[in-house]
Amino acid sequence: MDNKIPATEKSLQERASRASAKGDRRRAERLRREQRRLAYLRRRRRLRADDVTVVEESALRRAILGSVVGNIMEWYDVGVFAYVAVLVGQAFLPNATPVAQNLFSLGVFAVTFVARPLGGVILGQLGDRLGRKEVLAFTLMMMALATFGIGILPPASVLGVWAPILLICLKLVQGFSTGGEYAGATTFVTEYAPDKRRGFYAAMLDWGSYIGNALGAGFVSVLMLTLPGDFMATWGWRIPFLLALPMGTIALYLRARIEDTPAFRGARAETEDEEPADLAAVETEIMKPEEGPLGFKEMVRTYWRELGIAIVLVAGANTVGYTLTSYMPTYLTTTLGLDAEHGPLLTLPILILVAFLVPACGRLSDHVGRRPVLLSAAVSTIVLAVPVFLLLEHKEVWSILFGLGLLAYPTAAYVGNLAASLPAIFPTRCRYGGMGIAYNIAVALFGGTAAFILEALVASTGSPLAPAFWLMGTSAAALGAIFGLKETARRPLPGSMPAVASQEEVAELVETQEENPDLDVSEIFAIAPAHLVDTEPTVEEALAEVEVAQAWEDKARARLDRATRATTEALRALDEARKRESASPDSSGARSRPAPSESDPVPN
């Protein structure tokens, strides 16, 4: 794991190499000595009460509320667009065939996800440098303005070819902002949440996602049932998009009331230490902290394995999730032939069911672990995919509800754990950026294109069961990624100190740190920022250090005793051999020994 050594020690290594190359042996040795000292301190350091973060309940509530509202807005737009996709195609591509209009609408929906990786990379890097709070406020404003812009965009009858072009541009802006929204919100909540309840609190983000989707879908369904068809086709479908502006204003106010996460504030304090005043101070302070954010290339080079696991895992989860949220309204109307007003309504109770299963699955993972819950999601998707689409083929209300209901658990088990599992893969200094890259690449390739791919599979094969095999394939790949995922439930985030909900938990954690199966102190301090490690030892740490030294001394003495006994035995054997030789009849020289040749082996 040489590429995962802490940044300060890595910097010392590089400085020592440069000093050696310049012939400055004294400086190179001093740097290497400092590196060895830090490595020793990391092994010695024990957890103290002031290392543990106590999360204030009021601050946690504000952080969760401010993060959830952004997800509600994002998925409100997803729900609205999925339900008015047919009307959008008619408004912006009026002279095309119904099939072309549907594909255009689904393609425009997928275009949003083209910009998401770019937004994830740029906004993720900014979030690791400027702060989670500032970037999340920016993404929220962009999202609200772009969604509102869709509502006021004139149709093709007014703007001609510019109407669909501008629609695509607005969806690209939405995608760019959304690329930083989910990654930032999950990073924000997971860094705020206590370790033992991180799964539940992080799952609230995806609870907001499905509540937002249900709100959008429900509002559009009410409009379709109450407004005249002609008015709905021209202006009615725009009303849900116009509501994004007041919703965004409220969400922005809520986010303005929260502070940045304790983990980020601690990491930034490490990178903002003042520079030494003179050259002598520079020479003395050779351990200048360099724990800042990673660039894109360095992140990919250092964390390529973690990025790969996250991408495959998100691919499996989003294929199932987007099938239920964005594809099913189209599948029920175009493939199964249900009417556009009542068919999509059948997905609404399932969305509400998923919304309340998500936090339950997050809480479950806090008790049994993230991996078991994710494994159950992947396996249940593989087993249930074909039965789900067989039930949908019956076209009865009960069979459709039952079939969609079977997808509710794997969807909730997947998404209810992603928000807690993925940020825990990356350390604090590159968590936002790593999440932004991995999550948005996967969503762009498998989430936004899910509806388009599934519709194309049905059109090309003529089989309504074709989508089931796509779900099975992506979940089979996710199954392999889950086996490579490290268990993170109830454990501190990498690069961060433990977080608890009360002072009582602090005392218990410090007292039981050696026996706690969820707390690996050596692992925490192996990658902790240098300023947390380079401290004066406590009495307990000094005593522990003495015990370790005594244990090593005992082992060394035991080895020395064994070596001494072996030497004594060898000397005694040599003595006896000489006595036997001198006592033998031909010891006077009657038998001569040949002189050793160069080919004879040299004795040890």
Automatic annotation (TrEMBL):
May be a proton symporter involved in the uptake of osmolytes such as proline and glycine betaine. Keywords: Cell membrane, Membrane, Symport, Transmembrane, Transmembrane helix, Transport. Its main location: membrane. It is found in: Cell membrane. Residues 1-30, 570-604 are annotated as: Disordered. This is Putative proline/betaine transporter. InterPro entries: H+-coupled_symporters, MFS_dom, MFS_sugar_transport-like, MFS_trans_sf, Sugar_transporter_CS. It comes from Actinomyces gaoshouyii. It is a multi-pass membrane protein. The chain crosses the membrane at residues 99-123, 135-153, 200-223, 235-254, 307-324, 344-361, 373-392, 398-425, 437-459, 465-485. Residues 63-492 form the Major facilitator superfamily (MFS) profile domain. PANTHER family: ALPHA-KETOGLUTARATE PERMEASE.
